[in-house]
Amino acid sequence: MKRSKTIKKVSFIYTALLLAFSLYVVLDTFVIPRQLAAAEPQTVALSQTLREGDAVTEIQTVHASEAAEAADAQDAAQDTGVTLPQSSTLSLSGEVIGSWSGENASVTVTALRAYDTTIYFAEVAVTSPDVLKTAFAYDTYGKNVKQETSEIAEDHDAVLAINGDFYGSRNKGYVIRNGVLYRDKGAAGREDLAILSDGSFLFFDESEYSAQELLNAGALQVFSFGPALLSDGSILVDENDEVGKAMASNPRTAIGRIDDLHYMFVVSDGRSSESEGLSLYELATLLQSAGVRDAYNLDGGGSSTMVFLGEVINKPTTRGSRVSERDISDIVYIGE
User: Which one of 37, 77, 164, 225 has the lowest number of neighbouring Cβ atoms within 10 Å?
Assistant: First the structure.
């Protein structure tokens, strides 16, 4: 009898400890905010040649003197009134809902209906690749550090902002933002996007390059959500492709490159009676029709949000039941 009581007591303690540990794991994964340290830069000289298939892109290191000369030339161009790339005309019928032009960038936002869904295209022209910026929630790199897209945008005086790749929901996946390496833990099979110092896009598998190699080669931003949607105007996904176990039709966020210093930010609504949402293939088709050459899928679903001139212009959905913003880890934006 005494032995039976002891066994029950031990079993109770074991069960309680197991439940407590399981609860901690869940809270640590999804709830408890934790600031993390940026990855330590490596001092070893690494290859600065990036391969994409058989194509080779070589990015030369700019010495300090050359960088100063480039900065002087850029300032001179701005003083004389630099000409931004000309905006293209969407081949899709839509309504221009707003535009903005500043010293270093111009933005035109168009809303259109396709696939029983409202989609917002923000066409962006910039004078330099570093005008396209990213920001963390509360300016903090960490796990479960989250803030609404509109709040992060306001903190950084963003003219235009979209949600990023929600890096904080994962323990792996390269994180390079504004030329700083934060996370160098990768995973084979993950398709990333690097925006390089010349403004071009590079799609790659994390098994191909280390994060340090990308940084050394001039990567300004690296996102690890995916997949890539378009490359050189060709669609890379098919009608059956999807992100993880997500539904076939979703709110979506994507970033695209039209040509040199000429980009497209895209957000679609979804999961509501007004907007069904898009499949990856439908999203790629719309981007291709809009003249986008290269495009990459960012975090979607309830995260999909576009902010323009301080206003959330789409209808983000939380669990499909109400229109509201989701707290996220990071944004991509154009500042004043």
Answer: 37
Please write the tens of the pLDDT for every residue from 211-239. Answer: 999 999 999 999 999 999 999 999 999 87
Q: How many helical (H) and strand (E) elements, i.e. helices and strands, does the chain have?
A: 5, 26
DSSP-assigned beta bridge partners for residue 203: 193
- Structural domain boundaries, residue 311: 34-335
Nearest to 161 by CA among 296, 307, 35, 284: 307
Separation of alpha carbons 322 and 199, rounded Å = 37
What residue type is 179 in one-letter code? G
DSSP letter for 104, please: S
Asked if omega into 227 is within 30° of 0 (cis), the reply is: yes
If asked whether residues 109 and 232 sit together in one domain, one would say yes
> For the chain, what is the domain count?
2
Q: Is there a single domain that holds both residue 22 and residue 145?
A: no
φ and ψ of 46, to 5 deg: -115, 165
